[in-house]
Amino acid sequence: MTALTPGTGSHHRPTLSEVARSAGVSAATVSRVVNGSPRVSPAAREAVEAAIAAMGYVPNRAARSLVTRQTDTIAVVLSEPEERIFSDPFFAAMVRGISSAVAETEWQLVLLMIQSPLERLKVERYVTQGHVDGVVLMSLHSGDRLPDLLADARIPTVMSGRPTGTAGFVSYVDADNRGGGRIATDHLLSIGRTRIATVTGPMDMVAAVDRFDGYCDGLRGAGIRPTKTMVEAGDFTDHSGEQAMTALLRRNPDLDGVFVASDPMAMGALRALDKAGRRVPDDVALVGFDDIAMAAYAHPPLTTVRQPLDQMAASMAELLMAQLSDESTYDGLDHIICSTELVRRVSA
Amino acid sequence: MTALTPGTGSHHRPTLSEVARSAGVSAATVSRVVNGSPRVSPAAREAVEAAIAAMGYVPNRAARSLVTRQTDTIAVVLSEPEERIFSDPFFAAMVRGISSAVAETEWQLVLLMIQSPLERLKVERYVTQGHVDGVVLMSLHSGDRLPDLLADARIPTVMSGRPTGTAGFVSYVDADNRGGGRIATDHLLSIGRTRIATVTGPMDMVAAVDRFDGYCDGLRGAGIRPTKTMVEAGDFTDHSGEQAMTALLRRNPDLDGVFVASDPMAMGALRALDKAGRRVPDDVALVGFDDIAMAAYAHPPLTTVRQPLDQMAASMAELLMAQLSDESTYDGLDHIICSTELVRRVSA
DNA sequence: GGCGGATGTGGTAGCGCTCTCACGGCGTGA
DNA sequence: TCACGCCGTGAGAGCGCTACCACATCCGCC
Question: Which of residues 90-119 of A touch strand D (CB under 7 A)?
């Protein structure tokens, strides 16, 4: 037991005014002490602190929030199946980054997971009914009402990834996916490859489209016309990468380079190439995307495009903090695009 | 925009009594409608619902909590470095299980992470100041004040893992670690092994001690005295398992069986055995603990002790719900020990 | 026809806190 | 000596909501 409970049998949590009475001061003074106002005499402060300790007083946040209209907490909404949340290094890195940016501030971070329509509804209620001061939205689904609901409720929000279509005026942070696709392709070109295929992500995701566009940019820059037969879509998983690569090889036996739009898919593609008897990078050079930890341990180690996940996370936190601190003047339209970078290893 | 905002330039969130006025009823009636009370005439209900929709009314939870004294949210406190949270399948499974048990209820689940003393303090404040109705505590550190603070604050709590020493009257859910250690050892004995070593977890963790005790039980049951040279401690990581196994082999070149207290460590041990030229299971039979997904794909596939993670998670949720629903009569002393089971594959 | 009980409704106190305002006491400068 | 400002403090009005109580109806029953 860390607190002395009063002799009464039942448990009663002392209120601020009870503390005030016991300390011989007014409620206002106790409030000042609790909130660290400088306008309190040392004597009063001491008396109040003693009373607080003796009675085991804990402020009631609901009452406080009711009047201050803020909760000092911000939510990270993870709207993905949890097997992805707990396995995809992307989420881990983002949560880590945001969490450490928020750690030293006064804000408390809470994680909310959505994996069913009912949970979506509950989270919508949770964030709009005043439990949080701000929210970070990770990977929203198409048709997600959250951005609009949050905008209506005037709740500061930052999204990860460029929002699609209607989700209008929200600030967001994204990697330069198009630029990344381009540098990957340019690299393949620069090492002399000319018959370059690509495995894309699911084309209903903005990031996948952007990376593909970057691939096209690269080809066109070298005077090559992208062709349909050299493109195959996966769903960012390792298995789909293997399938896509197999299909690509069947259609284009002579391809000598491939840009795979995610590292897990690249791992799968590597397997497919191995099974097909192609040597990497001698026969086919391969560039991935993400630079997950495993990429360095692949056979051969993966040349890949790194997105600065830590920096992206930090930027999201920063953007949210900015909205949180000067809401009045904030126009809510900021966005940050983080540049990507080629990590050269062996596969290309 | 999903709601019609009033023509006034500035944003004003309508209150319950404004809705009441607009609907031509009293605040009490609006409250009844919002909270789904049956004691409302269809006409009134309709009027209120129309007003709510028209004004975009969203109830204020702080005000509600202030009077009802509950928040309808429960927290899962993850007190571990996030690299473990996001990599150790144990946490993923627990969070998944708890989350799905809570999903269909009225409660909202929030995840709180602690990875620094400051964050610990903030979380302590968060949970005691009335943000949550109940908490699930995952893997508390020794000297953690949370259990005591929560007990003082009379906040229903369930811990994962048997609490150490002082953390008195809290309900918890744990695997039968001792029993698991025993069945692992018994199995090794049953396949004719007699010189059985063990790699334990960190001995300041209850689970590690329990598994070790089970190992001793097994040996003693077969009339064998456990000896110090056959015991080496790791820290549950793969790397430490390799080191420990190497040490064990050096000291006991003739050992023919080993119980490794976690699967990641078992993977490391497998490497050490391989490097030392021992065949598994022919020369040395090995049993792990946890049955992580990777265990089935090890070389050779791992015989291991499975803890029913899903069931443990469900039990934690269940225990918490029980406390949440009939707090008055609840004595807070329940605990559930989930039995473990041997999964036989190739390594033993 | 009158009475008891169910039913729908409104009035309103108060949950615990913050924050504005007012006030008395003190130090300073003229 | 008096006017002025600053400082520490207390009184009290709400924040938005729920829950209790009181009150009108209306129904069915003896």
Answer: none
